Amino acid sequence: MRPSFFFSAYRQLKNPTSRLKGQIFNARFRMKNLELNRLKTQLLFAQDAANQLDASLDQSQIKKMIPHRAPFLMVDNVELINLELRLIQATRWIDPKDPVFEGHFPNNPIYPGVLQQESMFQTALILMYFLLNETVVPPLEEQVTNAVGTRIYDVFHLSAVRPDDLMTIRCCIAEYDSLVATAIVQIAVNQQIVTVGKGEFFVF
């Protein structure tokens, strides 16, 4: 055992503050895992979420709020918004003619997980627009909210997404300020949960 490692471990054992910090970190880590594990089998929120707003926003309105454009605009419609609970529900139809299926994979087409994650991020960014502007009304003119992903805590791909599937993307902004937001996002196809993830992004 290296001396530096030994003395580092010894200081942690003798320092209650270090032990306590470690216990808090481990507890938070377990809570995050429990949170995502629950969402592998349980919808993030019910269709009749309290105080929901039927949004019915299409891509022409979405493009006024986020900077993404075809072929990398990965959200088709926004169906529900709830600012009080920081919730949003959106959809993305998987076009069988998408050229990605020519290589992923021939004779076994599966929509890539990384593109699912992009749909999740864009849905979260749309919700951030409404939260930061404290409104559920889409802008009449372009008023884009920019962001970059900074951290993915965990993502679980539970089942394959196939051509012609309709992804329902449910998102909750767990915490945010004017710069950083943490989102919990879930994708379902025909009410079957296929992907769950939690990540962080920087808003500017």
From TrEMBL:
GO molecular function: lyase activity
SUPFAM superfamilies, A to Z: Thioesterase/thiol ester dehydrase-isomerase
Keywords carried by this UniProt record: Lyase
Pfam families: FabA
Transmembrane segments annotated in the record for this chain: none
Protein name as annotated: FabA-like domain protein
Lineage of origin: Bacteria, Pseudomonadati, Pseudomonadota, Betaproteobacteria, Burkholderiales
